[in-house]
Design goal:
The protein is mainly α. It is built from 4 helices and no strands. The longest helix is centred in the middle third of the chain and has 29 residues.
Length: 114
């Protein structure tokens, strides 16, 4: 059986640090698994998370929940689009486009600093 490949640049391509507190026993087991596979503990954790997320993606209950969350996001976005149109006009004026662009940039900067 071939070893799974670890995608270090999956998603956005940017690696971020995540601190997780685990028991000494679990850490010892993780270290042994890493030693046996020839990977680092970090690689083992990343691989485990990738596998877990793949399982979640195919879970019917999670798919239903995701659809509800997506619908709520779309409702909120439509409300905000309507608010911008009410303030700046429904013609998609340059001011509204500039405001939307500025908001997206600010959101990205905020996420990068999390």
């Amino acid at each position: 059986m071939s070893e799974p490949t670890i995608s270090a640049t999956a998603g956005s391509g940017q690696l971020r640090t995540l601190a997780v507190r685990i028991t000494e026993d679990l850490r010892a087991q993780l270290d042994i698994v890493a030693q046996l596979t020839g990977r680092t503990a970090t690689e083992e954790i990343r691989l485990a998370l990738e596998h877990w997320i793949e399982r979640v993606k195919s879970d019917p209950t999670m798919l239903q929940k995701a659809a509800k969350v997506r619908a709520e996001i779309e409702r909120k976005a439509e409300t905000e689009r309507a608010a911008i149109a009410a303030i700046f006009g429904a013609d998609g004026s340059a001011e509204a486009a500039e405001l939307e662009s500025t908001t997206r940039s600010a959101t990205r900067r905020g996420k990068a600093g999390e």
